[in-house]
Amino acid sequence: MEKPSVWGKLYLALILFLLYLPILVVAAYSFNAASSGAQWTGFTLSWYKKLLEEGKYTQPLLHSIELGLLSAFLAGVIGTAAALSAATRAFKTKGVFESLSMLPIMIPEIILGISFMSMFALVGLRGGMLPLVLAHTTFCIPYVYIIVKGRIRDLDPSVIEAARTLGATKIRAFLTVTLPIILPAVLSGCLLSFAMSFDDVIISSYLRGPTSELLPTKIYAALKLGVTPDVNALFTLILGVMLLLVATMAVTLQIRKILQRKVDAQ
Amino acid sequence: MKQEKSFPKFLLPMYLWAVLLVALPLGYFIFLSFLKQDMTYGFTLSFTLDNYKRIFSGDYQDMMLRSVAISGLTTLLCFTVGYPFSYIMSRLSGRARSVVMLLIVIPFYTNSLLRTTGIITLLSSNGLINTLLTHWGWIKEPLSLLYTPGATVVGMVYSLLPFMILPCYSVCQKLDRQTVEAARDLGASRVRSFFTVTLPLTLPGILSGCVLTFVPTIGMFFISDLLGGARSSMLGNIINQQINGRNLPFAAALSVVMLAMALLFIGIYRAFSGKSELEGIA
User: Fold this and answer.
1) At what angle do helices A229-265 and B94-109 cross, to 10 degrees?
2) Is B3 buried (19+), middle (13-18) or exposed (0-12) by CB count in 10 A?
């Protein structure tokens, strides 16, 4: 099969450029002295200063992080447990339950948001973080489940059988063999869950209360009134943290690979 | 691996969760969609089909058509841009491929409002595009790019492109090159071998990509809200308005119609691809 032509590579570069252009524009304008418009009037850090001094996004940010961590953790436990047993078992109701569990990421989010809103109103669950945690965990479970299940399917069953034959108890075989193998998948499922929860506007906008304002819903309310430089600065900070996380992950994986190669060489 | 028949206890938490927090809420709001609105209590317990009759009456037809048209156009554009991208990407060398993959996934992890804000900054009347065009003397008056259905489509394509690229790439990568080479050796032209071999073999990924772009767009109210303005409000925006206007039963009926559209799409995907899980989702 032939390698892509120069035109093909140019096409990839063009699309990637267009993909990053809006993000880079937002980052660039967070340093623009002009308070509106696209004219570049000089470099400034005052929007960041304003952002930190006013602090109106601090509380929503903390709520969003708390929500993301809780949902990712719950989804991590529930999704991994389910994936572990589902991968090795077949029974009658499996298809129905699996479809039902995966439904939250298949249907438009607004449907989930409204049905949670009306359901929680019915049982008198209003305000605070609990409705949000329940809702976010619901759409995070499928991500963990799919990723971990995929990993278990690729797992060579003979390694577990080997551990069991050599006298390891079921629990020990799980802790020393299965868990280390699936751990990267569990972590990436949790990371994806956190990212999805942290980014959610639609479902949260139906469930947030005065004591549980979240970062995305707060930003959305601000954006409805127009784009302001301090929102640009906030986005740039979020983007920076995100890139740092991705870079850390990439480096960690690289180091692991190098170590693995050294071990293999010995 | 040996398949055990017993009902697994570790699956119980997820199943319980699915029943209590997926089936129950969805069932409840489908029930709500058949009730009458009530100004004091939100709704009264009297059965009616009026909510559905209202949706299919003339008032909402335009909005429904526009909604489906915008989502359809978004899906088509994502495919037109994303499929060639995935195909070319799958032929890169291993290292370049993982770099491009990372570059595609990073925006997906950034904030969706950030991406929408970027589009606003580019398209608004005093935004980057208009400023540059005026500066170069190509236009005298700023073009009205923002607050049009076009802007909504641009914003949606931009936000959902990775969801088309990932599944398409997943099938392009698995594509057995030898089948294409065989077709070429047997005398098929490039175009013919593409349409008779490559395209059918990558169809599951394409369909999966279409589901992953079409389904979210019909409910994504914030993009059409921020970019499209009042003239391009979609099904999601109308549902949102009905919620704010406290007509829960009508909002529920609109959502049931949306749910039916989503499930229809997923059903078509399953029928054509013979798979229950979406290609390339993980």
Assistant:
1) 140
2) exposed
- Candidates B159, B193, B160, B175; CA nearest to B88 is B175
CA dihedral sign, ordered A95, A97, A103, A104: negative
Does the beta carbon of B210 lie under 8 angstroms from any beta carbon of chain A?
A: no
ipTM above 0.90, yes or no: no
Domain ranges across chain A: 57-228
CB contact under 8 Å between A12 and B88, yes or no, is: yes
Q: Is the pLDDT of residue A136 over 90?
A: yes
**If you count DSSP H runs as helices and E runs as strands, how many of each does chain A have, helices first?**
12, 0
Domain residues of chain B, as ranges? 53-120+147-273
Contact across the interface for A15 and B85, Cβ inside 8 Å: yes
Nearest to B219 by CA among A215, A193, A107: A107
The dihedral sign for the CA sequence A136, B109, B281, A73: negative
* Residue B44 backbone dihedrals phi, psi, to 5 degrees: -115, 155
B95's tokens:
């290292």
> Which B residues, 150 through 189, put their C-beta within 8 Å of a C-beta on chain A?
158, 161, 177, 180-181
Which DSSP letter does residue B43 get?
E
> Quick one: average pLDDT of A206-234?
89
> If you average pLDDT over residues B128-142, what whole number do you get?
84
Per the rule left: phi > 0, alpha: psi between -120 and 50, beta: everything else, B229 is left
Say which CATH class B53-120+147-273 falls into.
mainly alpha
Contact B161/A81, CB-based, under 8 Å?
Answer: no
B210 burial via Cβ count (<10 Å: 0-12, 13-18, 19+): buried
**Residue B181 has what pLDDT?**
85
pLDDT at B282: 46
CATH of A57-228, one of 3.90.1150.10, 1.10.3720.10, 1.25.40.10, 3.40.50.1820: 1.10.3720.10
pLDDT in tens, B40-72: 667 777 788 888 888 888 778 888 888 899 999
| Contact flag A22-B122 (C-beta cutoff 8 Å) | yes
Distance of CA B103 to the CA centre of its chain: 21
Closest by CA to B268, choosing from B207, B203, B219, B205, is B207
Number of A–B residue contacts, CB under 8 Å: 261
Structure tokens at B193: 């071998």
Band of residue A91 on the pLDDT scale cut at 50, 70, 90: low
This prediction's pTM? 0.88
